[in-house]
Amino acid sequence: MTVTDIPALNVTASFLGKDAISMRPDSAATDIIPTLTGTVGSQVPYQQVTITMHLLRTQGLAAIYQNRFASDTSLGEVVITPDASTFGNYTVLNAYLVNFNELTINGMDAGYVVTISGYLITNDKMWG
Q1: What is the pLDDT of residues 24-65, one digit of tens each?
Q2: How far is residue 66's CA from residue 99's CA, in Å, rounded to a whole number?
Q3: Bridge-partner residues for 115, per DSSP?
Q4: Residue 114 confidence (pLDDT)
Q5: In terms of CB atoms within 10 Å, which of 52, 64, 110, 112 comes out highest?
Q6: Residue 68 CB partners (closer than 8 Å, separation 6+)
Q7: In this structure, are residues 49 and 23 in contact, taking their beta carbons and an 8 Å threshold?
Q8: Which CATH class is domain 2-29+41-123?
Q9: Helices and strands in the chain, H and E counts
């Protein structure tokens, strides 16, 4: 994952736990509106997404993210590079740090899970 304007927050495989990075949609790319005789689709221009990163506290990057929560949660543009070369990159706009998961401090779990929210452009053909 690349944070376009803040290279110090870029994440590569060596900073990640086994669950790595996931991205899920939080809204629909098309709203389906019921009609008298069926439905009609209403395409939306963006889709909100949540990115979950499984960082390792044993790596210094996790501490940088921890400090970022305290100083400034704004990230701007974030680019997710998938693990399959057949998929293109995902550019997430207006991204913010949202949360970090419960920290288990028992000497057995080195995970630091960070949640980021932003949006993807969808249905860009509807603008011409």
Answers
A1: 999 999 999 999 999 999 999 999 999 999 999 999 999 999
A2: 10
A3: 52, 99
A4: 98
A5: 112
A6: 9, 97
A7: yes
A8: alpha beta
A9: 1, 8
